[in-house]
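ok trying this again, last paste got cut off
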Amino acid sequence: MSADTRKNTNFTRMQDATRDDYALIMKRTLEFGSGLPARVLTHLKLLAGETGGYAVDRLTHSLQSATRAERDGRDEEYVVCALLHDIGDTLACANHSELAAVVLEPFVSEKNHWIVKHHGIFQGYYFFHHLGLDRHLRDRYKENEHWKETVEFCGRYDQNCFDSDYDTLPIDHFIPQVERVFAQPKHSIYLASNET
């Protein structure tokens, strides 16, 4: 990896930085942010080859989830959430859904964020009982307004996406959708205030 040879700030403590320093940093942050879709897709590709014992690898599972959502007429943001719902598997095996949700949060609706964040517990309905666990753990969220949608997501776009014979769309098909969804945050701490 080559070093960044552009002009940088000189402060060693954030408290010593100036408005001009942070103007430069924010400019660079926005430039770096424009590469986020490519980095997300690169990370998604890390799921290739690892099956975890399932009939298809984790990437195929993710592509199949997005393919099924798209073919059901789900909107682009939902399809991208289906595509990326398990992206946390490589770094957060014990809480993959939370990691995926953190990546998606600034760019998606509160409902889609909630679905991705909680799908790990909700998918347990299909297998927790085989491991001696309570398959109804999802019911602790029964009063949440997104409970039904999360049950539906896991039923239609997660637990049934391990079919090696399914006509799954390739990753290239989803690149423009990922680029559009990650083009501009809908909300973040940086958008919360325009005070100068």
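PB: full thing came through this time. The chain has eight helices and no strands.
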